[in-house]
């Protein structure tokens, strides 16, 4: 018989967290959660602290996304929790299995006006899969285990627990949690067969694969299905890199051509949202493959929408033995369009203009980024170019804010990525607007010896707002930032290093110095404010 676990609330929570594969804690110090720190300290459990709670949640989300396991953020009561809600919401939209543990004012004094007394649950419930207050130390392991099981069950997502002071500080005992046992969701075999038949019988099929393909560990199955059915593949989110750029069925630049001509569009592991024209592909039939029935689109009617384990569904497509159409001519047609677009992009990425065009920044980055580098996008205008010009070579190497579009992910994502991959290049791409949200957490990276490279596209404006507003009204307001601001000096003042680059010819050497530095290093690139957002961006 397994011995029961004993200890204060923090120790009981830690036992359950470890059973579910959690290996680190991200936090900002707060007295309401001291027992969790005490448990981590005594057990040698890694603890990383930040300067704003949103960065703790974003760091936990980066771990969850990159490692396909739960990420943990610990936030103190009241403002600690509310400061983390944007991170929770991003995790909700991104289907990231993040657990946030919150402190809570003592229950025995509830209503008396204790420090930071508030009921968090009504705020976090709409953006989590599960939210609960745990009132007893004995109940903490059960609650943590149940929450993590919910977070890991497709469709994955964040969960929240908070502990009143008397619960987390009290001593208790409980049965040890057994660890995760997530049963796969089995898709309707008739729906899977229908989907396979539609793809095989199409004249011009296209696959668009998204983040859930990576999260569901279905990358190999996607490749097998694409190769077996000879279907061109486009990707978004963490689906990027599922097929390396040199794969004959991997496409990035010809999406507009493909979707205008396709007769069957297969969308796998990503919602039919604004990034995909809300699922409207003209006369093409839509096959929407999702990891859970809850993810079926309600605003459009696909031809078929198999819901279940993505590996199993894609493997079934790969094993389809029915009649099929030869897609070689269709693939060749798209390859011609792809190659032409790449040639145009190559010219833009080599532009010698000063002020520097954003495309040139990415042309230089492509020369220094390793195939396994983790690239993080935190911004709007500047990062939209990253989606167009960077082509991840491996799965699990691309992090962006996702469909919620929340700025400020950069330093938290960087922390989680560096903790996950101590020996890889970590490169954060930020607009100068986005830099204002999280740059203070460079101090957290410096202090905890977590080197990353930051590249800021500094055009002195909110580009996604200034240009459209001027086009609509003939003027713009609230769209200007301080021109040529020295964000590199901010990083240097926080203990890192950096430099400002104003000429295109200086970009390459500056980026090389950044990756060689071994400390948080910011390359502040003065870009052309007249350069407009490229509407053909493949950020989606």
UniProtKB/TrEMBL annotation:
UniProt-listed PANTHER family: 2-HYDROXYACYL-COA LYASE 2, THIAMINE PYROPHOSPHATE ENZYMES
Cofactor section: thiamine diphosphate
Pfam families cross-referenced by the UniProt entry: TPP_enzyme_C (PF02775), TPP_enzyme_M (PF00205), TPP_enzyme_N (PF02776)
Protein name according to UniProt: Acetolactate synthase
An example Gene Ontology biological process: isoleucine biosynthetic process
Any GO molecular function: flavin adenine dinucleotide binding
Residues annotated as domain Thiamine pyrophosphate enzyme N-terminal TPP-binding: 9-121
GO cellular component, one term: acetolactate synthase complex
NCBIfam families registered for this protein in UniProt: PRK05858.1
UniProt KW keywords: Thiamine pyrophosphate, Transferase
Taxonomic source organism: Micromonospora zingiberis
Annotated family: Belongs to the TPP enzyme family.
Limits of the Thiamine pyrophosphate enzyme central domain: 192-317
Residue span, Thiamine pyrophosphate enzyme TPP-binding domain: 378-525
Annotated EC: 2.2.1.6
């Amino acid at each position: 018989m397994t011995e029961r676990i004993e200890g204060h609330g923090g120790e009981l929570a830690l036992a359950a967290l470890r059973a579910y594969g959690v290996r680190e804690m991200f936090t900002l110090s707060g007295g309401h959660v001291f027992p969790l720190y005490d448990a981590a300290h005594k057990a040698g459990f890694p603890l990383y602290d930040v300067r704003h709670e949103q960065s703790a949640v974003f760091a936990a989300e980066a771990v969850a996304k990159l490692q396909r396991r739960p990420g943990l953020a610990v936030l103190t009561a009241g403002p600690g929790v509310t400061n983390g809600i944007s991170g929770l919401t991003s995790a909700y939209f991104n289907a990231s299995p993040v657990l946030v543990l919150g402190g809570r004012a003592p229950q025995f004094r509830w209503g008396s006006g204790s420090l930071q007394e508030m009921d968090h649950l009504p705020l976090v419930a709409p953006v989590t899969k599960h939210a609960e207050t745990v009132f007893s130390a004995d109940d903490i392991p059960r609650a943590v285990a149940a929450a993590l099981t919910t977070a890991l069950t497709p469709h994955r997502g964040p969960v929240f627990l908070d502990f009143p002071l008397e619960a987390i500080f009290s001593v208790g005992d409980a049965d040890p949690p057994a660890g995760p046992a997530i049963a796969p969701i089995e898709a309707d075999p008739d729906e899977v067969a229908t989907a396979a038949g539609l793809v095989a019988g199409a004249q011009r099929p296209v696959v668009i694969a998204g983040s859930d393909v990576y999260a569901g560990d279905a990358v190999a199955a996607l490749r097998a299905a694409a190769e077996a059915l000879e279907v061109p593949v486009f990707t978004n989110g963490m689906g990027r890199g599922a097929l390396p750029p040199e794969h004959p069925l991997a496409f990035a630049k010809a999406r507009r051509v493909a979707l205008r001509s396709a007769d069957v569009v297969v969308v796998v592991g990503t919602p039919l949202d604004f990034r995909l024209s809300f699922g409207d592909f003209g006369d093409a039939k839509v096959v929407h493959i999702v990891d859970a029935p809850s993810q079926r689109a309600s605003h459009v009617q696909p031809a078929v929408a198999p819901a279940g384990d993505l590996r199993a569904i894609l493997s079934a497509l790969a094993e389809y033995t029915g009649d099929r159409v030869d897609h070689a001519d269709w693939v060749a047609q798209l390859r011609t369009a792809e190659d032409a677009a790449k040639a145009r992009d190559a010219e833009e990425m080599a532009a010698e203009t000063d002020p520097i065009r954003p495309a040139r920044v990415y042309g230089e980055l492509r020369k220094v980024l390793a195939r396994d580098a983790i690239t993080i996008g935190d911004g709007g205008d500047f990062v939209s170019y990253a989606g167009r010009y960077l082509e991840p070579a491996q799965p699990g190497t691309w992090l962006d804010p996702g469909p919620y579009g929340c700025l400020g992910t950069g330093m938290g994502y960087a922390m989680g990525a560096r903790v996950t991959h101590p020996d890889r290049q970590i490169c954060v791409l930020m607009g100068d607007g986005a830099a204002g949200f999280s740059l203070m957490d460079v101090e957290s990276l410096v202090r905890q010896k977590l080197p990353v490279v930051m590249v800021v596209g500094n055009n002195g404006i909110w580009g996604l707002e200034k240009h459209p507003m001027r086009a609509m009204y003939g003027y713009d307001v609230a769209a200007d930032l301080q021109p040529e601001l020295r964000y590199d000096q901010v990083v240097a003042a926080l203990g890192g290093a950096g430099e400002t680059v104003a000429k295109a010819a200086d970009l390459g050497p500056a980026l090389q110095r950044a990756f060689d530095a071994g400390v948080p290093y910011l390359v502040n690139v003065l870009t052309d404010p007249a350069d407009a957002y490229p509407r053909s961006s493949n950020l989606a």
